[in-house]
Predict the structure.
Amino acid sequence: MIRTRQDLEREERERLAPQAARAADSWGRVVPEGDHPYRTAFQRDRDRVLHSRAFRRLEYKTQVFVHHEGDHYRNRLTHTLEGAQIARTIARTLCLNEDLAEAVVLAHDLGHTPFGHAGERVLHELMRDEGGFDHNRQSLRVVDLLEERYPGFRGLNLTMETREGITKHGHAWEHPIPLPPETPHTSLEARVADFADEIAYTNHDLDDGIGSGLLDPASLEEVALWREVRREVEVRVGKSEERVLHAQTIVTLINRLVTDLVEETARRVDTVHDLEAVRASDTPLVGYSDDVQRGLRELKRFLFANLYQHHQVIRAVRKAERILSDLFRTYRDDPARLPPHVVARFGVDGEARAVADYVAGMTDRFALDEHRKLLDPHEPV
Ligand code: MG
């Protein structure tokens, strides 16, 4: 009746492509631990990420739209879940390791500051002389150092493969825990996670952009990929409410990107024969056909110019920069205002890094409250 970990590992050996990462062959964890009776190493990584505090805080962190603008816009949690779902579909279809791809996507945004990329830019600027700030690096700090749940180590002690996926490519920064070995190409699962992230945010930003009225659907007609998909939907669905046509256009666009990625990747991966050859490859093995790649680039350019640079988004961005910069400077000038758990880390992580970790870990709401409490004389402390 019971499927053991050994059963799952045997299934992976039989079912997955030779180019896939297998849990039984994992590079392992920095602190050695015994195996779980009925979960593979990557399934355990996924579960550890899902049960972390940083994961729950994603719900109150901005993707593009601040949380009080409307309850149905994406936040970092729903972005992460959509990305994970897309990664699982791609990985499963290519006979890659679904658990590893899922674990990577669930963890990939844990290091994001409040208020989206605005927060990251500001912290990078403020930390310029202290090694800078980067959200991938911060996600690794969260899973390696900042989560405190286990008696024998700081962090979640994830496998090297999951940490490789979080790190993405290259790591020109200092990190106190041994980093995964660097190979010319990462696991295919790590690349799939990265593409799934892009498919998720491109589509939900389009969806939310139109839903919020910031993007004009008529002006999207200048984007070839959008136009093609939209025509296809109109033919297939026929006369229908605009709301349904719009939703179907997004559905069809996700489907087109995923299908193209799977087909093109299958073609490329066919030229390498096992995981070792994947890792040695100096050409990208996961990717789109030239046509779709071009179309997606045009669509992303459109989003950049018309959504991310929209004056209403920029207004929110400037406010966010101001709040994070005020918080960081106030704590740095007067560390006595910090809670003891942050001060306790000065000796281990350095003062500036401990403050950056604290600020980066905040949700949008907490940062706004804290800003008011610290700087508004009429607020209770
Ligand atoms: Mg993301």
